[in-house]
Hints:
The complex is a heterodimer.
Chain A: H1 10-18, H2 24-42, E1 45-48, H3 50-66, E2 76-80, H4 107-114, E3 118-123, H5 157-165, E4 170-175, H6 181-187, E5 190-193, E6 213-218, H7 221-231, E7 261-263, H8 275-290, E8 294-296, H9 304-322, H10 341-352, H11 355-368, H12 374-397, E9 400-404, H13 420-424, H14 431-436, E10 440-448, E11 451-459, H15 464-478
Parallel strand pairs in A: 2-3, 2-4, 7-8, 7-9
Antiparallel strand pairs in A: 1-3, 4-6, 5-6, 5-10, 9-11, 10-11
Chain B: H1 5-14, H2 21-37, H3 73-77, E1 83-84, E2 87-88
Helix pairs in contact in B: 1-2
Amino acid sequence: MSGELWKLTAHEAHERMRGREFSATELTQAVLARVEDVEPSVRAYVTVTASLALEQAREADAKFAAGTATPLTGIPVAVKDLIVTKGVRTTAGSRILENFVPPYDSHVYEQLRRAGAVMIGKANMDEFAMGSSTEHSAFGPTHNPWGLDLVPGGSSGGSAAAVAAGECLGALGSDTGGSIRQPAALCGVVGLDPTYGRVSRFGIIAFGSSLDQVGPIGRDVEDVATMLDCIAGHDPRDSTSNPEPHPDFRNYLGRDIRGTRIGVPKEYFVEGMEPGVRARIEEALALLEGLGCSIDRELSLPSTEHALAVYYIIAPCEASANLARYDGVKYGYSDRSGPTMWQNMEQTRAFGFGPEVKRRIMLGTYALSAGYYDAFYLKAQKVRTLINREFEAAFQKYDVLVTPTSPTVAFPIGAKLDDPLAMYLNDVYTIPASVAGLPSVSVPCGLSEGLPVGLQIIGNFWGEGRILGVADAFEKAVGWANRVAGL
Amino acid sequence: MALTTDDVLHIARLARISLTDSEVGRLTQQLSDILGHFAALAAAPTDGVEPTAHPLPLSNVMRADEVAPSLPRTAVLANAPRHEDGLFRVRAVLE
């Protein structure tokens, strides 16, 4: 049996398991062996669940034998460590949840298990998904498989790095302001942030509740479409979950995209973008034009300049409320050394939260406090309306919008750790679609200085199929699918 | 947008986070920088614009009022730092 099964895409692995070329158990063993080889240098996982994975692989083999296998049956996946898994420690990258063992499963994990996917482990992340580099994990940073002294992006850096390093065939991440798309771009893989409401948030440890969405990261667009098919759909346990049935996203792949109207917003091509990133994006736009799309570069979305501030006010405000639950009483780390309940709570949170989480809670608490609410939170919510209106008008004229995913390629570990504002600017291209709740996908478009660059395709509400179709046609034309990093 | 040490201590109290002196110093500087950067937001034209709390036009999603099982008490208390007689144990709330 080939020792390099971990290099396959999920759909290739599925076809070959259906053809009885190898079993789900053999595939899982190959991936676990790869994890053993590279995990000491990549550190994509907080927890590797090897024995559980082998047990799930045996169940998958039974499904193949019974003829009930579906596209994700037996596919080894990584699950971001804020997606709760019954009986498997779930930390959200935080010391405050270091020993938290959830008593129930999240909706998305239930869906993966129903499909017969195999969980290899829980992927590392910035604490409570607050960060763009995975350096803000209480369990240490993840390293980019394309350069081990570089960050993988974040917050879903463990998920993206695991996919890029062959430590799984696909992964789930979560995106609040770019946390799937930016690490996917920096690790040279495909990542999709669905329309807000497309995927249930039941059992997702909350950060910014009006922004958080779970989405897939994969080696190619087809794998991402397959995983989205699995996790999307109505769940009454999340009141924001869309009750309408979703289409089969794979039906949008392999289509002719001639005539697609692409808008390229001017405001995304200003200062701060690396020349190498700009060059790849220009080539990508030319390639899309060659595929018969119309490219309009006159589109202006003037409120884009305010999106970063809007996001970094609204998300911390929501976080400051969501993270009030970590009080050392119900679960998680608890410091009972002081004589009063309030001291216990303040000491618990002082030790349990890392510097970035404290910074965001403080920022959100300030922006919501008496005297500042109108100037910050309410103002940000009003500008959010302006951003939404501009997108709404743009989608009257265009089918999709195309931008870079990130202004830079992967940067050195430590380079921005002490400069929060510089770190926040990593999300400048991903935040506007998040603020509006729109779906967007990052697909690799080549290398700059030997490191991957991502192209972002933004769609209208519930338009995942359309952006996947464009991403798929682009991926085939650029010839970049499934490049495993040369560790 | 300059915050003072007292502002930071006040917010920390509201957020129930105890901070060391060096954290107070660092946060005073960092929060001032971040909020200063966001001051440009004031220039956005929002007269008569309604705020958006949420990307979807949803309100009052209801379910049928039917009794359904919830998690067993033992499962819920399994992660509790302290519990007693089936209840979470904390220090006295009232003096």
